[in-house]
Amino acid sequence: MKKILLCMAVCMTMISGCAAPKKVEHGVVFYPEPPNLPRVQFLVSFTGEKDIQPPKSGFEAFVTGVKESPRRLDKPYGVAIHEGKIYVCDTNATVMVFDLNQRTYEPLKGAVGLGKLVQPINISVDRDGNKYVADSVRGQVIVFDKNDLYVKAFGRSGAWRPVDAVVFEGKLYVADAANREIKVFDKNSGVLERSFGAKGEIDAQLVRPINLVFDAEGYLYVTDAGRFQVVRFDRDGHFFGTIGKLGTNIGHFGRPRGVAADKENRIYVADASYNNVQIFSRDGQNLTFFGEAGTDPGKLTLPAKVVIDYENKKYFEKYVDPNFAMEHLVIVTSQFGDRLVNVFAFGKEKGKKYPSDEEFFEQLKERLQKQRKEQPQETEKPEEDK
């Protein structure tokens, strides 16, 4: 009996040793690269359960005879983070949840029955922990509570095409791509109160609104894929200008997608053509950018959504370079590749004096022009473009 147990122990050790995953190490990735002063550091990426769940032991696989086949995201777009959970809209499946506390990767538990999702595009979370999922095929915005359980749905299928939804001061703002407008609902009653963007002055008319964000002062920024711009409104729908235009120069876009705003009212815009995220002042001046095409750490492949987060920094502090002071997180989804949910830190190198925004803008010109000249031609379009 002792010999059998010893044999089993040896087998377990050998199998575990052979099956143990190799930890992929990468050097610290900063944007801009040294000798420039860094503003953004790549921290870590998530693509599936292998990135968060402990691997099964080799002995377990040996005994059960089941070969491990890790689940992973297929084609993500929207993303949100709340209380240690990263919620990702997998457009070919459902909303998947990376739980950083429990170290699990599972579907959103309320997305069954009345809460079933068909093609979730974007997700946002309000202060109470309620999640708002824009499902363009189901044709509704589906609401889940702080426990991820289904609550209700906004809108009528077939009458519109909701592609993003955010809450601001008791109102739910929804980008309706079919009717080229922003619809405003009462968050509690679900009553449609008003719409804007489809009519009025030509400068204020939307062509293809796809992503939304409010800044710290209550201005709404709408990514318009048809105008190749980010359009700025106040909360009542009054037009306040634009950021960017179609082109390859500084501040131009090829295919603008996700838009985000930090507490300093800097505006972050993901571009699926240039595979980067540009950062602007609120008046539209470029401040810097990060990302480039590729599969290495810190690079992006058809980036879609970008979000800013201040509340969950503790989960990522271990990845931050000791000489870099993190101010907030920037999370960016890629639609293809092996790094689909990318977490960056925005901040500054400790002990260094940074130039003004105007000086940063001058340094940016050469970097951005060089990157775009080297940009490879894309071969596939994201789902919402097909």
Please name the defining characteristics of this protein:
386 residues; Neuraminidase; four-stranded antiparallel beta sheet; 3 helices; 11% helix; globular; disordered N terminus
Blueprint (SSEs and pairs):
Elements: H1 2-19, E1 29-31, E2 40-46, H2 58-64, E3 76-82, E4 85-90, E5 95-99, E6 104-107, E7 120-125, E8 131-135, E9 140-144, E10 150-154, E11 162-168, E12 171-176, E13 181-186, E14 192-196, E15 209-214, E16 220-224, E17 229-233, E18 239-243, E19 256-261, E20 267-271, E21 276-280, E22 286-290, E23 303-309, E24 324-334, E25 341-349, H3 357-373
Antiparallel strand pairs: 1-2, 2-25, 3-4, 4-5, 5-6, 7-8, 8-9, 9-10, 11-12, 12-13, 13-14, 15-16, 16-17, 17-18, 19-20, 20-21, 21-22, 23-24, 24-25
Task: Write a structural description.
There is one protein chain. By secondary structure, this protein is mainly beta. It has a single domain, classed as 6 Propeller (Neuraminidase). 11% of the residues lie in helices and 38% in strands. It has helices at 2-19, 58-64, 357-373; strands at 29-31, 40-46, 76-82, 85-90, 95-99, 104-107, 120-125, 131-135, 140-144, 150-154, 162-168, 171-176, 181-186, 192-196, 209-214, 220-224, 229-233, 239-243, 256-261, 267-271, 276-280, 286-290, 303-309, 324-334, 341-349. Strands 1-2-25-24-23 form a five-stranded antiparallel sheet, with no helix packed on it. It has a four-stranded antiparallel sheet with strand order 3-4-5-6, with no helix packed on it. The protein has a four-stranded antiparallel sheet with strand order 7-8-9-10, with no helix packed on it. The protein starts with a helix and ends in a 13-residue tail after the last helix. The model is unreliable at 1-25 and 379-383 (pLDDT under 50).
